[in-house]
Amino acid sequence: MRDRIRGYLTVALVAVASAGMIWISDTAKGQDAPPAPQNGGPPGGGRGPGRGRGAAKQTSPVAPVRRLANGKPDIQGYWNARGGGLFSIEATKARKQIGVNAGKGIITDPPDGKIPYQPWAREKEIDLSENHTIEESDAHCYTSGIPHMVEAQSSFQILQPEGPAGYVVMIWEYMHNYRIIPTDNRPHVLPASVHLFAGDPKGHWEGDVLVVDDTNQNARTWFDIAANFHSDQIHVVERFTPKDENTIDYQATIEDPKVYTRPWTVAFQLARNLTPGYQNMEFACWEGEHDITEKYTLESQGAPQPKK
User: pTM for this structure?
Assistant: First the structure.
C-alpha cells in the first residue's frame, strides 16, 4: 500500500511540474494577463481581506466564454471567489466570540441556509466554535479541503495542459493548495481506506460545464472558521459553469451520512482577476503558531478538548 500511495504522489508531482513548465513562460511574459479594470476599481473578486481580493465591475459587455482548440471552454487564468462563506458557510447571527459577523452564507439548499446536521453533530459544531477554534485546519497551515479551498483567500490559477487525457490543474497562493483533475472520467484511483486533504478528484465535461467528483477527503478540515465540519465520508460534486470570459458559476453538492441528515448545496461565483500581470506569490504560514488567549490554549496548557 505504501508503494501504491508513493506512486500516486509521484504522478501528481510530475503533472504539476509539467503544467508549470508548459505555462510559466506565457505567464511570465504577461501573455495570459487579462485587460486592466475599466472602472479603476480594485482587482480580483470577493468578500474578505487578502491579496487580489475583489473583482473589478465591468462597465462594458464582456466577451463570450473563451475556447480552446478542441472546443472546450478555456477557463485558464487567475480567479477569485465572490462568496460570503469564508467566515461561516451557513446563515448565521453575529458570533463575536469567534470573530464571525452576521451573514447569509453561501448555502442555497436547504432554503434556510443552514447545514442539515444530525443533532449530535450540531452540538459538536457549537462546542468546536466556542471552545476549540484552534482546531481549524488553516490555523495549522494544512490545506483547506473541498469546497473550502475554492473560496480561499487570494487568487488561484487554473491551467488546462494539452494532452490526450485532458487535465484541469488548480494552483492556489493560499496554503500552497493545488489540485490535479483528470477530465477523461476515469475511475477514482484511491482505495476507500486512504484519505487526503484535497481528496481524490475526477472530472468530466458536460457540454461547457466542468463536473468534478471528489472523494477520499480526510476529516481534518473545516468549511470555515465557524467550525462547520465533516467526516472522512464526505463526498462532493462540483460544477464549474463558465458564464462569460470573466465569470464562472460555482456549485458544490455535499453529502456525508456520518454527519448530515441529507445532501446540501453551496453556490457562488468566481471572477477573473483583472490585475495586469498578476501572478501567485509565495504564501508563508508558520506551522506551530497557536492562540495565546486563555480560552483557546493548547491541550498541553489545560484547554478543554472537543466533545467526542
Answer: 0.76
